[in-house]
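Reviewers of the previous submission asked for a worked example of the structure-prediction workflow described in the proposal, so we include one complete record here. The input consisted solely of the amino acid sequence. No template or homolog information was supplied to the procedure at any stage.
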Amino acid sequence: MIKIYSYFNSICTQKTFITLAEKALPYETQNIDLFKNEQFSPEYLKINPKGVVPALDHDGRIVIESTLICEYLDDCFPTPRLMPADPYLRARVRLWSKMVDETLFEATRELSFSAMFREKMRHMTEEQRQGRYQNVGDPIKRARLISTYEEGVESPYVFQGIGAFEMAFNKMEKDLKAGGPWLVGQDMTLADINMMPFVARMAYLDLLDVWIANRPATLDWWRRVQALPSFLASITHKTSDEDVAAMKTFGSKIRARVAERREEYLRQMRIAA
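From that input alone, the workflow returned the following structure tokens.
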């Protein structure tokens, strides 16, 4: 039996769902409501001491970290293969996974938060907000949360996120032009799956074309992704019309400023070069 501890709009959980769909694997889900702090309940912390989703329970064996979950599933259920046999191509896939985990996860969180989750926190009492801050055990993550709440798009962490997406889409365009149609060549791999939810979130927030309007290979990749049955089942059909409308509404409010800050980032990079 496969059980996924998830939250309906978790970008990391979406990676896992796409991998499961590609392999046509049945699974159960248990929702962990992040806004009710259920991820910090003693029961869930026994499953995932980091207090994040997703977590995988495969016949009693617990695996955490979405990138590791996807690789674990590929090893256990190797049809179709989502990691290449060639060691060099496997290394390239893992470079994409590393970039997602080390930069794009935080970038997406800051941009999403500055667009819409910030609005939810504005409706909290001061006591509730302070409780939310205190539940973030990592002081660095807490500082990011406070800055993004107080400063919105003007937060330096949001600026870093905008730069992280610029670098990611620049790499996508180069890699796709060099050997597409997928990120590491002719076959779709976990590199593509790892990127899909993050690109989708920018699309839902009405921010995606800030980065890819003039990147034709990336646009073609995105069109292919949106037609995949696994993507449709795992993201499109799991995202309610209400959530789609909310993301677009709140994302549109920061769109112009995000575009301006991207130009500011590009100017800084040109000066540095």
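The radius of gyration is 18 Å. We consider this example representative of the routine output the project will generate in years two and three.
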